[in-house]
Amino acid sequence: MHKVYIYKRFERFWHWVQASLIMFLALTGFEVHGAFKIFGFEKAAEFHRNASWMLIGLIIFAIFWHLTTGEWRQYIPTTKQLKEQVIYYIFGIFKGEHHPTERTGLSKLNPLQRIVYLGFKLVLVPITIISGILYLLYKTFDQNNLIVIEDYPLASIAFWHTLGAILLMIFLVVHVYMTTTGKTPTSNIKAMITGYEELDDDQQEVTIENEINQHK
Amino acid sequence: MLITLPCIDITLYLHLFLKRANAHKECEKYMRSLFRTLLFVIFVTIIALVMVNVFHQEDNYNLKLESLRHKYALKDIPSVNHSKLTALQRDFKTPQEVTEACLSCHTETHKEVMASSHWNWERASYVEGRGISSAGKKNVMNNFCLGTNSNQQSCAKCHIGYGMSSSHFDFNNARNVDCMVCHDNSEEYLKGASMAGYPDRTVNLENVAQSVGTPRKSNCGSCHSFGGGGNNVKHGDLEVALNSCSREVDVHMAANGMNLECVACHTAKNHNIIGKLYSVSSDNTNRATCEQCHTSTPHLSDVINRHGSRVSCQACHIPVYAKVNSTKMSWNWSDAGKLKDGKPYEEEDSLGNHNYMSIKGSFVWARNVRPDYIWFNGTADHYILGDTIKSVPVQMNTLNGSYSDRHSKIIPVKIHVGDQIYDKVYHRLVQPKLYGETEGDSAYWKDFKWDEAVAAGMKESGLLYSGQYGFVKTEMYWPINHMVSPKEQSVGCAECHTRNNGRLAKLNGFYLPGRAIRISMNIARNKFEKQIINYDEDKPTE
Lengths: 216, 542
Fold this sequence. Notes:
The complex is a heterodimer of chains A (216) and B (542).
Chain A: E1 2-5, H1 9-32, H2 41-69, H3 82-90, H4 111-137, E2 140-141, E3 147-148, H5 154-179, H6 187-194, E4 196-199, H7 201-215
Antiparallel strand pairs in A: 1-4, 2-3
Chain B: H1 4-20, H2 25-55, H3 63-73, H4 95-105, H5 109-114, H6 117-120, E1 123-127, E2 131-135, H7 152-155, H8 180-183, H9 205-210, H10 217-224, H11 262-265, E3 268-269, E4 272-273, H12 291-294, H13 302-307, H14 313-317, E5 327-332, E6 346-348, E7 354-357, E8 361-366, E9 372-376, E10 380-382, E11 394-395, E12 397-399, E13 409-423, E14 428-429, H15 444-447, H16 450-461, E15 469-479, H17 519-527
Parallel strand pairs in B: 5-13, 11-15
Antiparallel strand pairs in B: 1-2, 3-4, 5-8, 6-7, 7-8, 9-13, 10-12, 13-14, 13-15
């Protein structure tokens, strides 16, 4: 038994704040959409706007962190062992097999995660945020009292934003399910809180072998 | 958020320190869970504090509103005391003599007045599909007392002139301009009933002439509150109660508020008063707007200001109209003419409003009415006497606008419905002669014979009448602009942004955040909303 430091401090901070903001935005957003009533439309809309600015700020920091630390390389997609990973999640996991890939600080995402998270960062979040910014600025006045973003109908902006929100919720459900597929149901969540993942010594060897294989 | 970082730091250092101290494993485990709990509590607390700070908002001081209050708190002091003028210190035999006296000093003013629609009862404007046309009380029909033609003797009570007893009135005679009806500040002046615009015989013209000044609410209200034959019958948002009301009724005119006169907003350059109502007006010019004082960004909240691009101020700030006295919501002329023992009669409802009159038919009144909402771009068309009926219910006035028209805004309206007499052969509304001095003059209000009344009215209007009449359903749209409520009572967000049955439930075909989406269904429904005319459904002639 030994521990590997996988998730850095900023990474964990970013992950949890982003998670709570997204969940809060979902709560207020779906209320604005009319799905249920908690805060009342007016408060929900106001909370949603404020939280969205916080999320945009956080994402700017996260982008800066990814670029400066080189962590963005973690998301370079690969097809190596992608099939094995998919098969594992469909069949192997229910037979008690070992993960086909193991995470390390150098490569903490399995091939499937790489593709899914890259999609999350390059497609899902941009769709939601860009449509969200258009929504935020819809009918704003500029200095000349002219209206910004007027010809683009609110219905389309709202459509993309709601689509993004629904996909994000699907992501959330799948994501939370996946966290329970670690060694114990909570081990992955613990790792995201403390940053350390406990690994068996023999698994460590497997991991190192994998690393070596990957670098061959 | 930034505070959480050092917190995590400290806990981590302590964590490492404990490890180095090589403490007992049990103890370490316990401490670790303790720290974890502490970390969680601190994190949650900080998040809560940040949330409170972000979402708490003090009520800000709206400087724009305050400077407006200052501006309008100063009331004009008249520069002339008319009672001191010798020209007015005499016994006036006729009201025309008063006008002559006015013109002896205000030598050119009659030209301004005689160029106004108050005098001409019509105004030229460009109307889509009609071209340049003149519309006004002369030729526009309504679904209250129907129209002025052949009834001038009675209708001219609200004409700023003397002696308009028929359509042959001389609009070029300056002596007949009635200065007093607008400028009397003694509240003594009163136009006589069915006297073609002449003052009541009890009026002391000398008193009135000596107490003239800028128009007050009571001057404008003497006509505009009583349109349709009684207080608040037509508008719903203009009535005598506004002469002295509370802020809850109207923030601008309130006696315990700014106590503004009508002319504070409806300013008049050369007697051309700005502001008009689309019951008779057509084009989008010379309007009195909220923005002329309040600007297009009156709120401190940017989001609410932005609503102004598609939502009128009135839509949110006039949650209900007819706040004091009832207004007429429907008028069925087809019920008119019932007699008791050969004599006309009247019935009243519990509030003292007529719900039946033999001469006019049956009515429905309502008080504290929630407005209907429509898209409106500032242009309108009217049913002009002689037009062919295109759809049922007949649109007495059409307020143009739609969601797809970017100049349209949502405005509150009163929709007055009813039925009225029309020509079954020529498919057009007809103008009956209602008012008559004596029986046998073919006037409906004396003889109760539609055939003769319509024949006489149409003859006077210069139009053909086939002799076959029926009753057809009509609708008239009255934009609601007055009775602005205090801001605390304005329409809340969730009254429109709600799943179902919001205030805008009847406005479809566009996305409204928070509302159930039924776009495709509603587009299909809108197509068939304006039904094709089906004359068989009309009430048969009685």
